[in-house]
Amino acid sequence: MGQTIAPEGPFTIEDMADDVAGLMDSLGIAKAHVIGVSMGGRIAQALALRHPDKIQGLVLCSTAARVPARTKFVLGSMAEELANEKISYEFHDKMMLSWTFSERSFANPEMLKRMLSGVTAARARPKPADMLRQLRAGQSFDTRALLGRIKAPTVVIHGSDDILFPLSYGRELAAGISGARLVVFDGAAHTAYLEAADKFVPEAMGFLAGVDAKYH
Q: Which residue of the set 92, 158, 190, 216 is catalytic?
């Protein structure tokens, strides 16, 4: 979530996917590998559905075809409390850590220190109202009936201990995309790409290299 000025009023995941396509056009990128994590994974799905010719290979991590009801509730509640100035950015971010990292990360003093330093680091943050609008865009997202239209080679990567998007949602996503492969990282949570970076990077890059080798 950056500082880009968003238009007034509601917007959708599909709007954000169109923004990606527009950026690619502006940069002269006709086709690319796309790696999407969490909300980025939903944007990547929408990009593959709306602009299929722009996708070479697709890596979907810690994401789903829809948002679980509990996740809608907890993320929406925290964003609303932040927007209403009832909690601080720091408290919001600490609560997000509890939903996105695994038990083993909290039990690791060095990892916990790094996690907390990220919360307290001085950085530009989006306006709370914009965070809330972005969350609302994601909450209505549902591609279950459309996944069969995704033709790009796809790998779905998911942590076994993801409580924000439980593994069953990752399985549902992979099952809906023809030919998609599901990779599960045991013990990793929603931030599987960080907690299991030593597995995620070679898995993703190896998959995309295989796509290149097949089509070139």
A: 190
